[in-house]
Specification:
about 110 residues, 4 helices, elongated, single chain, mainly alpha
Length: about 110
Amino acid sequence: MSLPEMPQNPSRREMRKMLIRLRMEMHRQEIRHETQQLMEPLQKMRGMTTNWQENLGIKHGPLWGVGLVTLLGFLTGKGAKSKGAGGMSRLIGLTTGLLPLIKLVIQGSSRKP
């Protein structure tokens, strides 16, 4: 944040304008910071989807992905009656929570002879 230059003999009105500008800048930075915090899980998920085969280190990634999506559909789905985006956000949350566990299971099975 760059501070505005203060005149040598600021009037009361100029001081008030400067104070309002500072408050607006602070409010803008607060909104930016909170937005970054809210978007962090989405950015993390985007990063995982772009190179998820490399992150998990598995072969036949698309086949495992289809199987995983099918399994999660059975576990979290309510059928054709479900409406809204609430189910999708729950599915994304469950998927991001299960990825480390899936990774451990796959790595454990690949180590066995």
